[in-house]
Amino acid sequence: MRADRLISALLILQSRGRVTAAELAKELEISVPTARRDLEALSSAGIPVYPQSGRGGGWQLVGDARTDLSGLSASEAQALFLLAGPAAAASDEVKTALRKLVRALPQTFREHAEAAAAATAVDPTSWSALGRPRPARVDELHDAVIRRRRVALSYRGVRGSSERLVDPWGLVDKDGVWYLIAGTEHGQRTFRVDRIIDAAITDLPANRPANFDLDAAWRDVVGVVEQKRSRTWASVKIAARFVPILRDQFGMHCHVEQRLADDRCVVTLAAPTPLDIARHLAGWGAMVEVVEPETVREQLARIGAELVGRNA
């Protein structure tokens, strides 16, 4: 995992003072181009790692920092944990490396570094066909999470716009769509970052549960959402070559149940209502056959009749 390599690369630099991309590649059992990209990633993230050209050159930490990481500023230590934090939940090895790195940090930096590592989670499974560009507001919200400062939000929800004062607890990147998990006067709430009209970080301290776990909180959110999104199931027949497109439309609620002799597949699909499934399938025309339930076929027939009536 790349986060593990980045931490290993930094610790190697700490112990040796200077290293070439070839030496790092041999040490980590990776290619030289990969080692060079990892070193460049550390540098671009704000870690004081710079290349030295010429005879006896290589990559080194400015100021000859050693294993106590005293050469890192608070913001630089935080930047390293931002690189590793989202990946840490997926690997015990990365968690171990992070714990070692925390112990090596100066005491005054540890709280911010740990907060940075725990402030972001990554969920690669999409709830929509396409991801979206990273909202510009993510960075300032991330800063509010780490600094534990309340945020005054102007938010555009399904019922209109509202003003809220929230305690930011963490950010989640779900396949390019960002969500803020925060505490409110009504308890934990989830906000889509691209629906935040304005966000002002205040000087008020944010309250955060002592045992809050961002990954666990997000799993609970996903469980509730997926339950709502899978209230209606339908069985359809479609050519096998089109199944990947259906997966793009329905995400995790698309399952191949059977491969038929005519090179078609029986696929089960889920959505909140029969109309939601019908809307997704209407554009397929005769290429898709709905086996069941009758309610989805009825909605497709209604949509077809409306199209004929409007465009005949």
Q: What key attributes describe this structure?
A:
single chain, 312 residues, alpha+beta, Arc Repressor Mutant, subunit A, SH3 type barrels, Alpha-Beta Plaits, 6-stranded mixed β-sheet, 4-stranded antiparallel β-sheet, 11 helices, 13 strands, 44% helix
Please provide a written account of the structure:
Strands 4, 5, 6, 7, 8 and 9 form a six-stranded mixed sheet that branches. A four-stranded antiparallel sheet has the order 11-12-10-13. It has a three-stranded antiparallel sheet with strand order 1-3-2. Helix content is 44%, strand content 29%. The protein is an alpha+beta fold and 312 residues long. Helix 1 (2-16) packs across helix 3 (32-44) and helix 2 crosses helix 3 (32-44). It contains eleven helices and 13 strands.
Give me a quick take on this structure.
The chain has 312 residues and is of the alpha+beta class. The protein is built from 11 helices and 13 strands. Helix content is 44%, strand content 29%.
